[in-house]
Design brief:
Elements (H helix, E strand, L loop, with lengths): L15 E6 L1 E2 L11 E2 L5 H17 L6 E9 L7 H14 L1 E12 L6 H9 L4 E7 L3 H6 L6 H14 L3 E7 L6 H12 L5 E6 L7 H7 L8 H17 L3 E4 L2 E3 L6 H7 L5 E3 L4 E4 L2 E5 L3 H9 L5 E6 L2 H12 L6 E2 H8 L3 H4 L1 H9 L3 E4 L2 E4 L1 H5 L1 H9 L1
Parallel strand pairs: 1-4, 1-11, 2-3, 4-5, 5-6, 6-7, 7-8
Antiparallel strand pairs: 8-10, 9-10, 12-13, 13-14, 15-17, 16-17
The structure holds iron/sulfur cluster.
Pfam families: HemN_C, Radical_SAM
Keywords: 4Fe-4S, Chaperone, Cytoplasm, Heme, Iron, Iron-sulfur, Metal-binding, S-adenosyl-L-methionine
Function: Probably acts as a heme chaperone, transferring heme to an unknown acceptor. Binds one molecule of heme per monomer, possibly covalently. Binds 1 [4Fe-4S] cluster. The cluster is coordinated with 3 cysteines and an exchangeable S-adenosyl-L-methionine.
Amino acid sequence: MKASSSITTPSASCRSLYIHVPFCRHRCGYCNFSVVAGRDDLIDRFLDAITLELQSVRSSTDRPPELETVFIGGGTPTHLDHDRLARLLQAVRDRFDFVADAEWSVEANPEDITTDKLRLLRDLGINRVSLGVQSFNDQKLSTLERSHDGQHVRQIIRDVAEVIENVSIDLIFAAPGETLDNWREDLRLATSLPIKHVSTYALTFEKGTAFWSRRSKGDLHDSPEELELQMYDVAREHFAARGFEHYEISNFGKPGFRCRHNLAYWHGAGWYAAGPGAAAFVDGYRNVNHRSTTSYLKRLEAGQSPIAESEFVSAEQSAREAAAFGVRMIDGVDLQAVSERYGVDLLALCETELRQMLEQGLITRQADRICLTERGIHFADSVAGELLG
Ligand code: SF4
């Protein structure tokens, strides 16, 4: 990547921190995240290592920021027991300052939730819980290799909402063998529960996963593309009719409950990150840590940096990325504002692509703001790809 003299995301503008906790009790067949299963013996070493890394993240900035959002994801942060979870959260609290209304999200697996853990999360400042529900249908959960059952997870959602109001759930659609009626039932159950936000994704088969090899052997099959699109449209209609704002291609929130952390990514703000495989974007550099948990631990234990890859992202590329993420917002993206932020003329750079996408009916343009059309919403990845150049 070509280096540029302009600083594209000064650390002063970074107000978000992502922490990756790699532990899971089992690796789900479709998962390609940086995860270790059955290695709880590494948890204490991980806590020591991430404490060191957080310290170095803080010391790397001249003016330590007041964070607006913290997202503790994984993996499964709630796989940590009460004391270890407390230690992790305290390590973050001790090393950063926060605005008064900072958003603190934690990803949680339904089977890890206990009253004790919920109170701990609340008492240590967690004010948003993102539950990996995926479905309420036991057959679909079993296909996805998730160990909770639909009945139990409904009760867990109610329990969480009583302690921490802001509950988000993840739902997967287009799982092998899933019908449109199955999906409608998942949607019906979701909105019968006290949730504020939903992220929903079609199942993807990623290279290197167990699902990928099972599909190669003919043991699992993709859903037909037409069914996948129908499921997506059914979800959009369902959530819209129940007061959820569709604000990003895959995300729906009740008014006032959009995920502020993800908005920071999508609006092109910088962010800090710590943990195996975590990617930070600060001062124009994208730094990605070692994906392997053991390599990550060994590096920090040896007093070395956990960063495996570092690249300077030029102002032009940063602007293109901001536009590509921004166009996934249902309200669209103001290309002139992005251009001004990065000091490049994005409208001129993307003139041909913008004209073609307008002709193809994928986007609309009002002054300098572009938005996906109804058709474009189905092709959001292609539109984003065009803007990336
Ligand atoms: S629980 Fe989530 S992070 Fe862990 S293996 Fe399953 S999909 Fe991956």
